[in-house]
């Protein structure tokens, strides 16, 4: 696996100097602990550093698929000028959210693979960030009957699982589900359609 | 909130002296106008607008605690 590049000693103070004032001026009641991650904790993500949050605002942090947690992580990585290949070197977490999410993604990957094998039709996941897409690809790396690839651009990029021999479908622009859930027509993402 | 946006922006850019935030109070919404050096625009916006989106998420969550809506406007 890749070598450790960052440590609490090398960047801990910069993270602390950024996060401390940020959380205070945002009024978030959160504490955090920065630590060096143990090497080889699972083969899906091997961060160098962990920032673990606790406190009354953890629920806010983890709401909407940990939207705030991931936003804080992202701006912190930008502040540190991490390259795009370094984005799994730092992991923000609270209540083991990351571990649970990886498990969830792994199960979804398996379910999707079974379905593609059964139906012979491609399966398109909802859009995910690169780290989550990576987990799906890794979860399927041992499969011989299906293959996975990412399609689309930007925040709409999504994993598509295909039967092993099938050519890729053309990209379909992702149309997010409308926020209001009302009766009437469904205008969701375009459904994947099998090609024979 | 002005402080929050200013702190984040200053940490992201190359020229922190050129970061300024103006707060425009509205009835429902407070608009925060962020100005940075032209060469630093990309830093606060990020790839595919990811960084700007993250800052807005943080601002939104912080605003919820105050029961107030904040909008971030990045001036070009």
Please supply descriptive tags for the structure shown above.
heterodimer; A: 196 residues; alpha+beta; 3-stranded mixed beta sheet; 38% helix; B: 76 residues; 3 helices; 3 strands
Structure description:
The complex is a heterodimer of chains A (196) and B (76). Chain A has 196 residues and is of the alpha+beta class. Chain A is built from four helices and six strands; from the N terminus they run αββαβαβαββ. Chain A has two domains: 88 residues, 2-Layer Sandwich (GMP Synthetase, Chain A, domain 3), CATH 3.30.300; 63 residues, Ribosomal Protein S8, Chain: A, domain 1 (2-Layer Sandwich). In chain A, 38% of the residues lie in helices and 15% in strands. In chain A, the strands form two sheets. A three-stranded mixed β-sheet of chain A has the order 1-2-3, covered by helices on one side. In chain A, β2, α2 and β3 form a beta-alpha-beta unit. In chain A, α3 packs across α4. Chain A is elongated and about 50 Å long. Chain A starts with 7 loop residues before the first helix and ends in a 33-residue tail after the last strand. About 5% of the residues of chain A have low confidence. Chain B has 76 residues and is α+β, with helices and mostly antiparallel strands. In chain B, 42% of the residues lie in helices and 26% in strands. Chain B has a three-stranded mixed β-sheet with strand order 1-2-3. In chain B, β1 and β2 form a beta hairpin. The longest helix of chain B is centred in the last third of the chain and has 16 residues. Classes of the chains: A alpha+beta (196), B alpha+beta (76). At the A-B interface, α1 and α2 of A face α1 and α3 of B.
């Amino acid at each position: 696996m890749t070598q450790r590049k960052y440590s609490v000693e090398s960047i801990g103070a910069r993270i602390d100097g950024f996060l401390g004032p940020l959380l205070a001026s945002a009024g978030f009641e959160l504490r955090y602990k920065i630590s060096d991650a143990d090497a080889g904790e699972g083969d899906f993500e091997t961060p160098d550093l962990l920032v673990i949050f606790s406190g009354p605002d953890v629920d806010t942090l983890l709401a909407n698929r940990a939207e705030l947690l991931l936003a804080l992580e992202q701006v912190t990585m930008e502040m540190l000028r991490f390259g795009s290949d370094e984005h799994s070197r730092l992991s923000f977490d609270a209540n083991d959210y990351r571990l649970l999410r990886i498990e969830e993604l792994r199960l979804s990957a398996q379910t999707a693979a079974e379905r593609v094998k059964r139906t012979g039709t491609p399966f398109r996941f909802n859009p995910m960030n690169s780290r989550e897409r990576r987990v799906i690809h890794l979860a399927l790396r041992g499969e011989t009957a299906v293959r996975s690839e990412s399609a689309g651009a930007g925040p709409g990029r999504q994993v598509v699982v295909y039967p092993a021999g099938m050519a890729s479908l053309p990209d379909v622009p992702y149309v997010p589900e409308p926020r209001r859930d009302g009766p009437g027509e469904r205008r969701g993402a375009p459904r994947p359609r099998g090609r024979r | 909130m002005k402080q929050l946006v200013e702190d984040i922006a200053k940490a992201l850019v190359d020229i922190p002296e050129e970061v300024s935030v103006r707060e425009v109070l509205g009835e429902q919404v407070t608009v925060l106008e962020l100005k940075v050096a032209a060469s630093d625009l990309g830093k606060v916006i990020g790839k595919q607008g990811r960084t700007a989106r993250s800052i807005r998420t943080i601002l939104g969550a912080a605003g919820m605690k105050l029961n107030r809506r904040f909008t971030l406007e990045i001036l070009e």
